[in-house]
Amino acid sequence: MRPSEWPLRFIPRRAPPLWQALAITLTGLAAAMLIRGVLLGFDNAAGISATYFPAFILATLYAGPRWGWAALAATLLLGYFGPSATISSISRTAVIVQFAISGAGTVLVAALLRETLLRLDESQAAEAQVQADLVATEARFRLLADSAPVLMWMSKPDGSREFVNRAYLDFLNLDRDAAMAFDWRKLIHPDDLERIATVEAQSEANGSDFIWEARYRRGDRDFAWIRSVSQRRLGPAGEVLGYIGVGYDVSDAKRAQADLTRINDLLAERVEAALSERDEAEAALRRAQKLEAVGQLTGGVAHDFNNLLTVITGALDLMQRRPNDAVRRERMIEAAQGAARRGERLTQQLLAFSRRQALKPQLSRVDDLLAESEALLRRAVGEAVTLTVATGAPGALSNIDPSQFEAAVMNLVVNARDATPPGGGIHLESRPCTLADGEAEGATAGDYLCVSVRDTGEGMDPETASRVFEPFFTTKEPGRGTGLGLSQVYGFARQSGGSAVVESTPGQGTTVRIYLPLSHAAAVSDVTAAANEPATHGPARRVLLVEDDASVGEMVEAMLTDLGHEVLRADAAAPALSLLEDKQRIDLMLTDLIMPGGMNGVELAHAAVALRPGLPVILTSGYTGETLGAAAEAPWPLLAKPYPAEALAALIDAVMGKAAAIA
After folding, report:
1. d(CA 435, CA 417)
2. Residues 6+ apart with CB under 8 A from 338
3. Torsion angle of alpha carbons 130, 132, 137, 140, nearest 10°?
4. Residue 264 has what pLDDT?
5. Buried b (16+ CB within 10 A) or exposed e, 354-364
6. Which of 361, 452, 498, 577 is the most buried (most CB within 10 A)?
7. How confident is the model at residue 529, as a pLDDT?
8. Residues with Cβ < 8 Å from 183, sequence gap 6 or more?
């Protein structure tokens, strides 16, 4: 314990029991009386009243102000401070009044000191929690960056790297320390080096982003065309902290361009051969366009995460500079926590749109889903077209798959964007409605929620509009569409018990409406929120924690320990099974789904139950794709990452309670 912390350890955070408070107060008074008697004799009280002040301070600090006042009153009533013979001119009343005033001042100052120390203790505890949350958030950001299929980095103003992701390391074929110290300029093809240096100098001069394409050596192998996009990282005061960037392989696009050029040169002489080669080149170009789209989306995500990291690092910096400014510290803590929550929501949206989550229908508020998707929709639309969102069904519920719904809305908006000229607009709207029989194909009469997307494009004639929901039918030019977007929208609506219709007039744009059945049950979010209410948890358990990510494992172990449980750690299935084969007691296994070693969490759970029949198991995952589908069919509950300690504790109590009931 540091010397500055001992007052906080002496003062209890909660009021002590009555007998403790009384004992402390009486002990202090008795000690004061003993000291006075030793110093001046028990028959002489004049000039010695100040010896009681430490007793007043002790009672106030430990037991609270009311016990300080009680000590003062007891001292006055006992009358141990009577006048001395040497100061007979001062009346007993005057001495009592003088002592009462001094004693009251002492109690007031001690009460103020006690309140100040308690507030300081609370502030230190809150700051420690924020630090832990920031560490967990940084770990999630690093996990997301390492899972991206493109090169990502953060650099200092001089260009040296501060952070690189897994794709960057794989490209250089180096470990992290070597990659951080490696001069990336040595990878550039000699023929491109001068051009890149010119672009870099121009960007630094005018303060714009660094955007270029160059050939980079892939480790010790051949060269690959990389499109690099870097932008400045600014500090709280606007100073340049460095750069954040992404790079993605555009070699296929370059090869496709070369193929197209060669085809045009040979078209006059070799028409039939050129047509075959052109088809191959267009296929390569489509693959390159998909990679470019992924790169653009990743660049936008990097921009969003850069903003979140700026808030978090800026808040930490400001708290370190002025640690005693309580008002600013609380404001910075709230800002950092808000950025962490926004990062969590962005991660969930990316998983949904990439279809890396299990597809299950659940009662959902459609307006809330639209609000959460709005930022990603605007990024997909771009700046050339205006997107307006009007949600008109607050609280309306529908039993739908949120991921499929968000993908359907994204398909509608992207199709509307492709059909809308620059300067046009797209209007996304939701509203409750009532359909009659036959009003929408496949939908029975009843109450529905209508989600419509209207654009100001060229529109379609009736014959074309009647075929838009057919698979592989597209009105886009070759190479720009697959014809599966609107068919996915139609299939989602029909599988959800509703329908989809299209209305279009040449020259007046197109409107696509999705009708989803309304539900009057409670939303899943409401049930989850109720389940997350604080509760009294069960007894301590011995938990086997199986987690391959060291930082995540340490955080979960800290949660379990804080809840009073004993934790055994394993970073893969093999060491976990070794622990299970021992005779030591294990009450519960908490395992991640994706792990190294060829055995996932579901397979480990089956093996564990085979070794120890009836062993309670909890599965956890951030995203798992097909494996999550296997987890949905398993008999054990799945806890989605990230999760708070309260949710983990509640699930442990539920699982152990169920196991006890079965036993």
Report:
1. 29
2. 311
3. -170
4. 82
5. eebbbeeeebb
6. 498
7. 45
8. none
Alpha carbon distances (Å) from 277 to 261, 265, 272, 283, 600:
11, 12, 9, 10, 44
CB 630: neighbour CB atoms within 10 A? Answer: 16
Cβ atoms of 300 and 383 closer than 8 Å: no
- 597 or 591, which is more confident: 591
393, 366 contact by CB (below 8 A): yes
Phi, psi of 422 (to 5 degrees): -55, 135
CA distance 189 to 171: 15
Tell me 188's DSSP state: B
pLDDT averaged over the chain? 77
Instruction: Put the strands of the sheet holding 617-621 in their side by side order.
Output: 566-570, 542-546, 588-592, 617-621, 638-640
Helices and strands, number each (H, E), in the chain = 21, 17
The span from the CA of 310 to the CA of 242, in Å, is 12
**Locus of tokens 């460095």:** 242
Q: Tally Cβ neighbours within 10 Å of residue 347.
A: 20
Q: Which residues contact 154 (CB under 8 A, 6 or more apart)?
A: 161, 162, 163, 164, 233, 242, 243, 244
**C-alpha radius of gyration, the chain, whole number:** 35
CA–CA separation, 335 and 312 (whole Å): 7
Positions of E strands within 494-634: 499-504, 510-517, 542-546, 566-570, 588-592, 617-621
Pick from 20-24, 318-322, 404-408, 525-529: least confident:
525-529
The closest of 560, 562, 556 to 542, measured between CA atoms, is 560
| pLDDT per position as a tens digit, 611-662 | 999 999 999 987 645 556 666 678 888 887 878 788 889 899 989 888 888 7
Residue type, 234: L
Residues 162 and 647: their CA atoms lie apart, in Å, by 35
The pLDDT of residue 213 is 84
Q: Tokens in use for 490? A: 């139609």
pTM as predicted: 0.37
Residue 573: name the closest of 603, 537, 618 by CA.
603
CA–chain centroid gap for 595, Å, is: 22
Give the CA distances from residue 50 to residues 72, 112, 201, 396, 642, in Å, rounded to whole numbers and listed in that order.
12, 20, 76, 71, 58
